[in-house]
């Protein structure tokens, strides 16, 4: 058993919680009226479920114990990003004219190494998987290139683990901040990731098992794409043929974000072209 396969839900959950507190900025000044509306609707939805489904004290106490365990395992970021974030993302991006977005998930780390295009992501000498070349261009909605646009990219390795969230992986493994050229063009060399299950040895796994769900996410590459004067877009890029495109546990797949890589002529891996279109800043 390798070090990375010994990763635990509690350890990765604690790291995700820590990173959330470090990196997220919160909008100030949410009105009392808005808090009252949202909190009241949430509480009402829970109580309506209790009344309509005749929830027993045994079920209530099991639910209460599970909520406590989610906190103890540090899995609130995982729980919310898997089962709720896709709806928040849909609301946030419903008026975009440019590229479609998707969820960020709990494993983003800012300030990954800066790489000029053509770039190769940091990886181990014996990194497993199929080499993948991703080429693309960053433009605005008028089709004009955005010189020096940025593609922040991160993804799991071939075993489904993210650097900085599993032991034994180099700090920036399969993470980078790629700078496009003067024409907004970029090339990124990496490894095509594999599908993986979200952590199942903690509270979220407990829920999955009790409900008879599966824990699989289709293979995907995470990106944040931005350029000065334009709205940042966060997305996940998926792959044609993945068996979990239609039943992603995180409900985050969109057809516009599915890649169709082709084998390279020299047999050295696969390649794909995918462009990003950014909306002007508000």
Order of strands in the sheet with most strands: 1-5-4-9-10-11
Note poorly predicted spans.
none
Name the structural class. alpha/beta
SSE order, one letter for each helix or strand: HHHHHEEEEEEEHEEEEEEE
- Measured on Cα atoms, how large is the radius of gyration? 20 Å
Provide a quick synopsis of the model.
27% of the residues lie in helices and 22% in strands. By secondary structure, the protein is an alpha/beta fold.
Please explain how this structure is put together:
- With 282 residues, the chain is α/β, with parallel strands linked by helices.
- The protein has six helices and 14 strands.
- The strands form three sheets. Strands 1-5-4-9-10-11 form a six-stranded mixed beta sheet, with no helix packed on it. Strands 2, 3, 6, 12, 13 and 14 form a six-stranded mixed beta sheet that branches. Strands 7-8 form a two-stranded antiparallel ribbon.
- Strand 9 and strand 10 form a beta hairpin.
- The protein is globular.
């Amino acid at each position: 058993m390798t070090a990375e396969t010994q990763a635990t839900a509690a350890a990765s959950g604690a790291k995700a919680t820590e990173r959330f507190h470090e990196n997220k900025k919160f909008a100030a000044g949410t009105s009392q009226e808005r808090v009252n509306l949202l909190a009241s609707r949430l509480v009402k939805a829970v109580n309506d479920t209790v009344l309509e489904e005749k929830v027993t004290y045994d079920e209530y106490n099991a639910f209460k114990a599970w909520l406590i365990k989610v906190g103890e395992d540090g899995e609130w970021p995982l729980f919310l990003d898997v089962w709720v974030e896709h709806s928040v993302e849909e609301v946030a991006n419903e008026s975009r004219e440019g590229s479609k977005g998707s969820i960020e998930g709990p494993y983003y780390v800012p300030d990954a190494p800066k790489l000029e295009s053509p770039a190769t992501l940091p990886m181990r000498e014996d990194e497993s998987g199929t080499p993948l070349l991703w080429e693309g261009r960053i433009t605005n909605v008028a089709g004009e290139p955005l010189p020096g646009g940025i593609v922040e990219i991160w993804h799991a390795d071939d075993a489904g683990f993210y650097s900085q969230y599993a032991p034994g992986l180099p700090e920036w493994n399969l993470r980078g901040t790629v700078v496009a050229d003067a024409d907004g063009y970029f090339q990124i060399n990496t490894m095509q990731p594999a599908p993986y299950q979200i952590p199942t040895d903690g509270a979220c796994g407990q829920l999955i098992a009790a409900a008879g769900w599966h824990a699989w996410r289709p293979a995907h590459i995470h990106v944040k794409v931005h350029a000065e004067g334009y709205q940042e877009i966060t997305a996940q890029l998926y792959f044609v043929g993945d068996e979990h495109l239609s039943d992603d546990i995180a409900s985050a797949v969109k057809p516009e974000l599915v890649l169709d890589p082709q084998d390279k002529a020299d047999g050295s891996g696969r390649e794909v072209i995918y462009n990003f279109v950014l909306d002007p800043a508000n």
